[in-house]
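Work Package 3 (structural annotation) set out to generate three-dimensional models for the target panel prioritized at the project kickoff. During this period the team completed the workflow that converts sequence records into discrete structure tokens, so that structures can be stored uniformly alongside our sequence database. As a representative example, we reproduce one entry of 427 residues exactly as it appears in the project archive.
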Amino acid sequence: MRGLPIGWVSSRSPLEPPIGFREAMLRGLAGDGGLYVPTGIPVIVHGDRSEFQDHAVESIVPWIGMDHDTEDAVRSALDFPVPIVEPRPGVFVLELFHGPTLSFKDFGARTMARLMVRAVEDAPAGRTVFVATSGDTGSAVADGFSGMPGVHVVLLYPQGQVSPVQERQLAARRPGTLSIRVRGSFDDCQRMVKAAFADGRFERFGPTSANSINVGRLVPQTSYHAWAAHVVPEAVFVVPSGNLGNLTAACMARASGARMRGLVAAHNANRGFPDFLAGGPRPEMESLRTLSNAMDVGVPSNFERLEALLGTETLRSSIRGFSVSDAATIESIRRTYEETGYVCDPHTAVGLEAVRRLETEGTAGPFLVVSTAHPAKFPDTVEQATGLRPVEPAPLATLPEPDADLPSCRATTDALFEVLEERRLSG
């Protein structure tokens, strides 16, 4: 389906004139602080093609409405396997960790990088991509944009709150990339990125974002949900969730025609969204540190987008939510390995524990768990649960040397600006 392009408006100003996808991607955040949402939902009918890349093009192009270069960008970005395995009957796992940084963030980051480079080719000055990361987003964005002309990347991650493997990926030297350790939480990093957009001092950097608040990352993520719904139709999709970008992409895919029987948000101890789905207040809590650290989000940015897309009543009626403790996460990794021989990371384990609870309630399958990261990124946790230490795949064993002079800063916008001034990354 390649009909009229979809327009994009702020979640806070839905009656304002819409803008195109490219402009929304370059801005990252709307001028009023809102997140861009589509003015319509394309009805996407997939052909009988059996390759993921074909489905990805069919899924992404209707949302973007860009020229023929879009197909080339999608195919070159998503040039890695997307297997769906069945550890036990009726329970499927969509493995999204076979890209270069071994996490699902590769889908959005690599596609966005290629689309953005095309978008800034005629711009008089480049862009600086600001991204807050709780572990996996940063390395995927750094890898996706590394060496791309006209684009710099600034990564903010919470010091001491990512796994050692994730920190190796974040600290690796890459052209045009600066990683900054923030003395605070992921929520602090996310707040700093948003504040930079409203701070005039940062204008000369040409700021944009590569978190899931950016439609350039969000739209490509619809592709694998649509693919999984084609391979395993009418499944209950279980999405390990934190900042809610992956869940938002699943909702967009379902709205555009993907055959999902249900949607489940599987959270760790940061349970603000599951509590909201059960009738509680908006998810706004201090983030808690857990074994599934990429989901350690107390104030999920994409909640605003989900609420604008679906409304509170539909959100609560169409999505189930579960919160899983660290102890239950370890047990889920152990049980899965002992019963099936399948080794999973702690984020996938949260999703598999949600499946177990659904089955206990009597919910019928099939179930499809969206697996977001390779178990080798969390070797200590996997070994604790199974006694088995995952073998490092090539992307980890061949990482570039770490930056020995990695800066750190306080969790303030002033401190961030001082680091950029000192490093003179762009301007």
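The mean pLDDT is 91.
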